[in-house]
TrEMBL record, chains A, B:
<dbReference type="InterPro" id="IPR011611">
    <property type="entry name" value="PfkB_dom"/>
</dbReference>
<dbReference type="InterPro" id="IPR017583">
    <property type="entry name" value="Tagatose/fructose_Pkinase"/>
</dbReference>
<keyword id="KW-0547">Nucleotide-binding</keyword>
<dbReference type="GO" id="GO:0008443">
    <property type="term" value="F:phosphofructokinase activity"/>
</dbReference>
<dbReference type="InterPro" id="IPR002173">
    <property type="entry name" value="Carboh/pur_kinase_PfkB_CS"/>
</dbReference>
<keyword id="KW-0418">Kinase</keyword>
<comment type="similarity">
    <text>Belongs to the carbohydrate kinase PfkB family.</text>
</comment>
<keyword id="KW-0067">ATP-binding</keyword>
<dbReference type="GO" id="GO:0005524">
    <property type="term" value="F:ATP binding"/>
</dbReference>
<feature type="domain" description="Carbohydrate kinase PfkB">
    <location>
        <begin position="13"/>
        <end position="290"/>
    </location>
</feature>
<dbReference type="InterPro" id="IPR029056">
    <property type="entry name" value="Ribokinase-like"/>
</dbReference>
<dbReference type="GO" id="GO:0005829">
    <property type="term" value="C:cytosol"/>
</dbReference>
<keyword id="KW-0808">Transferase</keyword>
<protein>
    <submittedName>
        <fullName>1-phosphofructokinase</fullName>
    </submittedName>
</protein>
<dbReference type="Pfam" id="PF00294">
    <property type="entry name" value="PfkB"/>
</dbReference>
Amino acid sequence: MSRVVCVTPNPAVDVTYRVGSLVPGASHRVSDPVERPGGKGVNVARVLHALGVPAVVVAPLGGPAGAGLAEALRAGGHAVRPVPVAAETRRTVTVVDDAGAATAFNEPGRALSADEWPAVVAAVTEELADAVALVVSGSLPAGAPDDLLPRLVAAARAAGVPAVADTSGPALLSVAGSGPALVKPNADELAEALPGDDGVSGAAGRLLALGARRVVVSLGADGLLGLGGSGGDGAVWRVAGVPGVSGNPTGAGDATVAALVRGLVAGTPWPEVLADAAALGAAAVLAAAAGEVDLAAYERFLPTLHAERVE
Amino acid sequence: MSRVVCVTPNPAVDVTYRVGSLVPGASHRVSDPVERPGGKGVNVARVLHALGVPAVVVAPLGGPAGAGLAEALRAGGHAVRPVPVAAETRRTVTVVDDAGAATAFNEPGRALSADEWPAVVAAVTEELADAVALVVSGSLPAGAPDDLLPRLVAAARAAGVPAVADTSGPALLSVAGSGPALVKPNADELAEALPGDDGVSGAAGRLLALGARRVVVSLGADGLLGLGGSGGDGAVWRVAGVPGVSGNPTGAGDATVAALVRGLVAGTPWPEVLADAAALGAAAVLAAAAGEVDLAAYERFLPTLHAERVE
């Protein structure tokens, strides 16, 4: 079964607590914790699964938290290829109050040992033998090799499948330089990695110049910008946001990535891929948790959105 | 080796995160988490260990968190008698900012199954065969049997050793009614369990009338009050606080309990026991974490404190 390989270099067990209100300096009795598998690549796989697109999560997983994460994914019907590592998988703790405000405490990913990253690359390479695409999403834990993402992109190229990367910081630049099919920063990540006064489309153009074949910049409520598909090298496409959508933006970028990879694999025309990605991202904002989408809203949003060429 | 049996009905893995400042509604990158065994009975055992008094922790422990808690206690040189239970042991998360303010999120203890509480009682009873005292500290998880603490006190009586209880709410009243050697509420817990206008010593006297043979009420920075030891039934003793002590009050009550049980076991005169307990409680405020005491401060404080008969 050909599937999308979703690599999550820095997975987490996402823990949610509910409180009446969060008072700094006070002691709170919280609700029973809700735990779910987290990490951006995990979220992409969940959205693909909801869309009926087979996916497998590849992630370094360690300790009881890592074992629990793999077990929870399998219990949810997801394929997972754990790469066993010594360090315990991290947690994130999100405290949600009665007004819906979310306060997050994100543990850093623990460093892997020198021989564990090659095991991750080997597992991804094996999975790519029977894959339709590679997605690499999220941050890298401290100590990850600088060339990790370029090596994964090279493995996808060797397997003849497109590679999509959603990351930030120096890793965004190094992965763009390795010639992936697509990179998807958000506007803040793009401005941080490539500061300058050439605007969003200018900075995105620099990612193209580095080597990415397509760039999609998610703009939150303002939709997204797409470069590098059909229309010639200089074409910049824009899809507006869906008006009046508010909710939980966490995971919207992951839903956008899921739509983009689905479109690339299917060979869908570029403007349609972009409109689809914007609709699915907006539908994710309406869902309760990252990695979920409101499919009914997606069906409503899709016919209202169109990519327009702006440059 | 005769030791103090420290029962912790509702243990926890205490997790501490450090942040620059806690901003409700924001996302925070936190330090590497520091995990340590928690729960009031665990803290009492740690203080006893620091004092050179052998102790064993008896606690229902479940899942990877429970296994990790037992392992961490053993690694610290503590004896532990885990009672295996199905439900995972809870966590507490404390977020400490750069100014030292601590914001705590305490998960509720998960309910034990019907046959697990009898296993706790059986384990305590076995440990009491070679014990010098019983301490039961902390809250009860939801679903704990109403007569749990009275049954533990009865087991101590059958073994011929004194029972000391530090709990709150209805459990404080039921354990006092079962005739323990000593109960130690703090002033807030006492006022909550026994509201009225007869003041701290009046309410403490009602715990004596219920059946407790001694009552010590910890008053935070104001020291403590002791009833029911030497001096006749109506005697109320008071030890003032140590002036100018500030720090981390969590665990001060547990250090007080450790000193009280040590004094009861040694047959130390009651006024000396009370002064010792106040000194050790104040020394715990100066220590970084619950279950620790500043032994040098304790040695300084001890000669400055004296119990005075106030009623």
